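Hi R.,

Here are the chain sequences for the assembly we discussed:
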Amino acid sequence: MSLYSIFNIAGSGLAAQSVRLNTVASNLANADDVASSEQAAYRARQPVFATALFHAQGGGSAVGVRVTDIQESQAPVRREYSPGNPLADKQGYVYTTNVNTVEQMANMISASRSYQNNVNVLSTTQQLLLSTVQQLGK
Amino acid sequence: MPFSIDQALGVFPQALQLEAQRAQLLASNIANADTPGYKARDIDFKAALAAQGGQGGALPLMRTNPEHMEPSAAGGPAPVLYQVPLQPSLDGNTVNLQYNQAAFGENALRYQATLTILSGRLSGLSKAIMGT
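And here is the predicted structure of the full complex:
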């Protein structure tokens, strides 16, 4: 029954979106980090999604989603003059992150909506399978 | 009188299978709504059902030799097509989430309707057999 593979598909969607939510959470948590050099500064992370083929029943038409990589943003980190900071370098600069908080919030909303969509698919499929078992198993 | 249970059930077993396949494709579309380069897919339900039920549409296989196997009415999975994108995004993704959600809900309803009819026919047959 090809309805069963929907659990895999929607489950992979849930997993991928929760990885995305996790990266958003760590980006937001580290939004105000400071570092004493440009290399050590925190850079925003973003997962890369790709389709994943499940070789289940149904002739390979079931495709889920998987996270292939988590990439760091290439945007430049901010440099702030703050000689009083214990982490400041010799010139008195600290390096903050390149996390764009507004962008992260938008990303978070998008990820949570996608997560909800997959949950809806899961619960509908569960109902369908349940009524299939109940009605045809009488 | 030769009686076939397949005939008594009509086109509904094939329809149920097609609806399950379509639910799978639509779930794939919804799961891949954020995947770059993913092309949304679907099946042409009416054409697929006509091909599987042998009503109109495609012609059924013919036996030219009596030793050939009986061609079964229920073929394999229906051919998978691509949805026409309404507004493709820059990353090459063509999933229209609203359309896919609506189609998934409609498909679930159709599945349940088919299931109800099918189980009604089955219980009718069972009544005819048991006599109660």
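The interface with chain A takes residues 17, 20-21, 23-28, 30-36, 38, 41, 76-77, 80, 97, 101, 104-105, 108, 111-112, 115-116, 118-119, 122-123 of chain B (CB under 8 Å). The two ends of chain B are 22 Å apart (CA to CA).

Let me know if anything looks off.

Best,
T.
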